[in-house]
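User: Okay, second chain of the day. Same drill as before: sequence in, structure tokens out.
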Amino acid sequence: MSPLLPLKRPVFRMLWSVWLTANICMWMNDVASAWMMTSLTTAPIWVALVQTASTLPVFLLGLPSGAFADILDRRRYFIMTQFWVAAVAVVLSVTILAGWMTPWLLLALTFANGIGLAMRWPVFAAIVPDLVPRNELPLALALNGVAMNASRIIGPLIAGALIAGLGSAYVFVLNAVLSLICGFAIMRWRYERPPNPLGRERLLSAMRVGIQFVGQSSRLKAVLLRISLFFFHSTALLALLPLVARGLQGGDAGTFTLLLASMGAGAILAAMFLPQLRRMMSRDALVVRGTMLQSAATFVIAFAPNVYVGVIAMFFAGMAWITTANSLSVSAQLGLPNWVRARGMSMYQMAIMGASAAGAAVWGQVATLQTVQISLAVAAITGTLAMLTAERLVVDRGIEEDLTPSRELKAPVFDLPAQRTHVVVTIEYIIDPQHDNEFRALMLDSRRSRLRQGALKWDLLHDISDPGRYVEQIVDESWTEHLRRFDRVTASDVALRERKLAFHIGQTAPVVRRFLIEAG
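Assistant: Same drill. Structure tokens below.
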């Protein structure tokens, strides 16, 4: 299967081009901001905080942004993010041209630009699985990585040329123009959101359900831990790279750009071979080996004697980055149904950006107290040790669930007015007491399923007077949210229901009762 196969689909090709251009703008902004900070101050902590200011908004706003992307029109939401980024770029340009820029103001505007990134990423991550078949999803995600890393080459090259020729302000001017072009391109996309007779979810409820879904998924929890560990340590390289570039013989803005471009080139090359690598190794093996390669590259560049060694190290760092990030991204996407995809991927991105923001601050402070070389060396060594520990201690059950939507379970029909009161559902099972241990173990899977669908609470009651009688009790936020759970049933949930029914030995099907809480 060709790694370029998804690009034959016109809508994916158009939106992928927008994504490439948007990421070029992002790298132009990051390079110009980081280099400008080195001209405003030479303190390592200030330089590292540029990375923190860029990534922290995604950590803080990722979940509400993901919820909005799931409950609002994704096309309009995507367009809005582009105009936000363009507006911030205009303010940056004016501030620099007027001579008003200070370290604190640069951090504040970098943070504002990060808000646009926080709003944009979840919606794009959510729409990709709608654009390609499931078997092409790993290829599409790899192409997104190619876009990210091609932009890592193109963005810094453009930024470096503009900084050297015209000044940093014109980087942000070009950023604003390209962001506007992206916004108008997205307007050509015709996306029809299927109408939901239950209406939109409320924001707080949508956020709660998203958190519950991830919290009840062993696969997603394992993915979030691994991606957090990887980016907490690997971000030391990007956060301190401006200082590494300045420390090399003849180091200047061109050196910084060359090192970034080398990392991007390595990532692009590795992306082309990811299909073969996935056939040779499991995803877990790719994550561990990618982390080890990233650590080795970071250690080498910490003590690189010249730019030539630095370029080679950054090339392998790029290969490691795309291999690890893509492997974990595919795992996350395959563990999310469409209705909660943006929320789940927003938490994935929150883990990346939160870990990157914390890592940049930590490794910047270590460099301030010690040296840049020591900071990078410690990050490299502890990065591999942490990932190996996580692989040993944190269990990814590795179950590929069938998340295909199922309409086999029909929602109940009652003529009820709009209800805000909680709904209690009880399901009575009669089982052979000799199999109660197996039944209780299976009901833990039922608990995870109910909570992932959005239930507020789940309990399993055991009748003291009748050892074979169990009652599954589910509490929903409202009647509407109870009905919404039927829209979220997957083929995997149906299979789980059949396994539960296999334990039931009653003369009739399990009795289901629904109650409205009138007082309490």
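The two ends are 59 Å apart (CA to CA).

User: Thanks, on to the next one.
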